[in-house]
Every structure is written in structure tokens, then in C-alpha cells.
């Protein structure tokens, strides 16, 4: 009986794996159609200066508005797009759209200063031999200055092989700023700083979450701002959800932050941000 039961567990597991593989294959096929019929949108989340909550840049984040399934978040389809290669084409669309939008905001006076936009780039895109050329073309085509574009990479992506390390160097040479995303996690660590030029460390939300707790919880956030300061890099604290966290980050020396406390990702961010600024001032 025990054996039969184990067998049925194994079978159920196999069926579940099969279902999952099928669902992913289905999703992969739908991604193509989604790109062709305009189901993707970008939303933008402010990155603000502490303590005044002035918007200094925005991070572009992709959303999929599926006709039947509704809103699908990037964690549920970016890996699939990465797997089947569509991320290359999708990523080019993301880059063009984000850069064009940044220029539009400035020309339409939605922002009185030029808008800096941060774009996430995945391993497969970075490994493409012509990725730096694509970025140069998009900058020329949209008229965005290179120094107003920030490319967010992870260590995992940079070390995936191929051209990636050279591509990051080429991007930096163009004047594009390089941000190391999820810094401090397994995806991005100190080692990378010896290999590629980095301008910004994005300190992972996991280190911000515990910052206001007593004891040792702020040690890593403290160490990471010291690394950034010591190397002359900017540091952005990710995933700031409360005023207490913002105040503590400021006290530790952080001057840039991003998180729901300052603003969720939206289609049209408020570049003047006066409403939030009053609530979030921590100095
Ligand atoms: P990420 O680049 O680290 O982006 C930050 C994620 O944290 C975003 O999730 C954002 O909505 C979320 N977030 C921001 N503030 C808070 C907060 O205060 N609390 C909480 N709980 N979450 C917060 P999102 O948009 O779901 O994106 C998840 C990940 O998917 C991104 O992590 C990035 O790795 C990837 N991704 C998103 N958009 C793109 C894209 O256009 N291209 C590529 N290649 N990857 C993308
Ligand atoms: Mg990011
Ligand atoms: Mg991040
Ligand atoms: Mg992250």
C-alpha cells in the first residue's frame, strides 16, 4: 500500500510538472502575440532624494495586460521570455518606449528638468553582441542624452557569459550609467565591482525591511552605504514602505530611496511630488 501511495505521489508530481511546463509553453506562445497586439505597458516608479522626496529619476517596470487573464506581473513572464528568447525583442521595445517617454515628459513640461530613466536589462539581452549598439541607436532615435539613461543589471546577468562584461563597459563608455540591482543578494555582490564599471548600487529591499528593528538588523544596510560612499557610488535603498524606514535610512547616510512609501509604479508619475514630500520629509 505504501508503495502504491508513493507511486501516486510521484505520478501526481509528474502531472503537476507537466501542467506547469504546458502552462509555460502556452504563456511563451502568447508573449509573441502580446507584443504584436500591444498588450504590454510600462509603469514608472519614482526614485527620490532624501529627505525632501524630490523625484530624481524613475524606474521603468513592465506590465502585461492579458485580454483574458488580466494583469500579469513581470516575475511571472520575464523568465519565460528569457527562456524562449523573446526577451530580446521585448527588451528592445521596453528600451525604446522608456527612453521616448522620458523625452516626452520633459518636452511636455510634465517635468521641468530632463527625466532620468532606469531600465532593467536581463541576462539574455546583455549577452547579445549588438546590445550596446541598440542602446546607442535608441538614444539617437529618441534624443535622450546617454547620462539620462540608467541600465539596471544584476551580477547573475553580467556573468552569464558571452559579450556581457564587454557590453557593460561599452555602455558605460557611451555615458550610460550602470546600476547594480538587488545589491547584497545572491544576484549581485561586491565581486562585480572589480569587473565592470558601476555607478549606482540598488540596495535590496530585504535589507531595508528589517532596518527599524532592534539589534543587528541594520548592520548590512549600514555596511552597504559605507561601501557605496567609499567607492564614490550612489546608493538607492529599494522597497521603502514606511516613514520610519525612510528616516532611519537617512540617518544611516542614504540619500536616495525608492518604494511604496514615496510612490507606486504608475503610468504617469508626479515629477513635482509636492503632496508626498510634505508627508515624507525626514530631516
Ligand atoms: P526590480 O528591478 O528589483 O524592481 C523592483 C520591484 O519591487 C518592482 O516589482 C516594484 O514594483 C517592487 N517594489 C517597489 N517598491 C516596493 C515596495 O515598497 N514594496 C514592495 N513590496 N515592492 C516594491 P515588479 O514591477 O513586479 O518587478 C519585479 C522584477 O521584475 C523587477 O525587480 C525586475 O527584476 C523584473 N522586471 C520588471 N520590469 C522589467 C523589465 O522591463 N525588463 C526586465 N528585464 N525585467 C523587469
Ligand atoms: Mg530594477
Ligand atoms: Mg531592484
Ligand atoms: Mg529587486
TrEMBL record:
Annotated source species: Actinoplanes auranticolor
Protein name in UniProt: Diguanylate cyclase (GGDEF)-like protein
Domain EAL per the UniProt entry, residue ranges: 24-279
Amino acid at each position: 500500500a505504501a508503495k502504491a501511495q508513493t507511486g501516486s505521489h510521484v505520478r501526481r508530481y509528474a502531472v503537476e510538472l507537466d501542467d506547469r511546463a504546458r502552462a509555460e509553453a502556452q504563456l511563451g506562445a502568447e508573449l509573441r502575440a502580446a507584443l504584436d497586439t500591444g498588450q504590454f505597458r510600462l509603469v514608472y516608479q519614482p526614485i527620490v532624494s532624501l529627505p525632501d522626496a524630490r523625484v530624481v529619476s524613475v524606474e521603468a517596470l513592465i506590465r502585461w495586460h492579458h485580454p483574458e487573464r488580466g494583469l500579469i506581473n513581470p516575475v511571472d513572464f520575464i523568465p519565460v521570455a528569457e527562456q524562449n528568447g523573446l526577451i530580446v525583442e521585448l527588451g528592445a521595445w521596453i528600451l525604446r518606449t522608456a527612453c521616448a517617454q522620458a523625452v516626452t515628459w520633459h518636452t511636455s513640461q510634465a517635468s521641468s528638468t530632463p527625466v532620468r530613466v532606469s531600465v532593467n536589462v536581463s541576462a539574455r539581452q546583455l549577452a547579445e553582441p549588438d546590445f550596446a549598439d541598440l542602446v546607442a541607436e535608441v538614444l539617437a532615435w529618441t534624443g535622450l542624452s546617454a547620462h539620462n539613461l540608467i541600465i539596471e543589471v544584476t551580477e547573475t546577468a553580467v556573468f552569464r557569459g558571452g559579450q556581457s562584461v564587454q557590453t557593460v563597459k561599452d555602455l558605460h563608455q557611451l555615458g550610460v550609467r550602470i546600476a547594480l540591482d538587488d545589491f547584497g543578494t545572491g544576484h549581485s555582490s561586491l565581486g562585480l565591482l572589480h569587473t565592470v564599471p558601476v555607478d549606482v548600487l540598488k540596495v535590496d529591499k530585504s535589507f531595508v525591511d528589517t532596518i527599524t528593528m532592534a539589534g543587528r538588523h541594520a548592520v548590512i544596510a549600514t555596511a552597504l552605504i559605507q561601501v557605496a560612499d567609499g567607492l564614490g557610488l550612489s546608493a538607492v535603498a529599494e522597497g521603502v514602505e514606511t516613514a520610519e524606514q525612510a528616516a532611519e535610512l537617512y540617518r544611516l547616510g542614504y540619500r536616495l530611496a525608492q518604494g511604496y512609501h514615496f510612490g507606486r509604479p504608475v503610468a504617469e508619475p508626479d515629477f513635482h511630488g509636492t503632496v508626498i514630500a510634505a508627508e515624507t520629509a525626514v530631516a
